[in-house]
Write a structure and sequence with these properties.
By secondary structure, this protein is of the alpha+beta class. The chain has 6 helices and 4 strands; from the N terminus they run ββαβαβαααα. The strands form 2 sheets. It has a two-stranded antiparallel ribbon. A two-stranded parallel ribbon has the order 3-4.
Amino acid sequence: MSLTLYFIVGLQERLLVDTRFLNSVNNITLFQTIDDIRKEYNLQWNLIDALICDSATCNIKLYKTIKEGIHPKIILMRCWPHLIDIVSDIWQNSPLNNGIHKVIAKFQHLMNKSASRKSRFIQYLKDQKVPKPRTMPKIVLTRWNTWYEAIEYLAEFIDFIAGFLKVEKKRT
């Protein structure tokens, strides 16, 4: 796991302080690492306003350790990208989206299975006078926005996909 620390000066300026990679992660190793970096920069605890992190147990324990023993005025803020990721996972895995997910997965499987089919699809789009012919973006699990990009693609190209699949069915 990596730990990245920033100084935020005013509302506009953020300075990357340090990034450390930890082999063992728990509230104690996190605290020791933050404290070491704090000492290197000669930063007093009372100048640290917030701990911004996800809701992992070790982070909550770290926050409580700092709040109860060192700096009672520190606040805990949830990391927005982590919250958005949790919400998107729930939304993506919702039974309401099962059909959308299946369509995306099946179409991507068809395109990835055959380079010639992918070429025929691009040509089909050109023949249909699509301004910017392209294939569906690949879903990458570590980049949650790719799922949304695939949905946007599906919404824009669903009629062309259906037409292409009809043409492909006649080929076989």
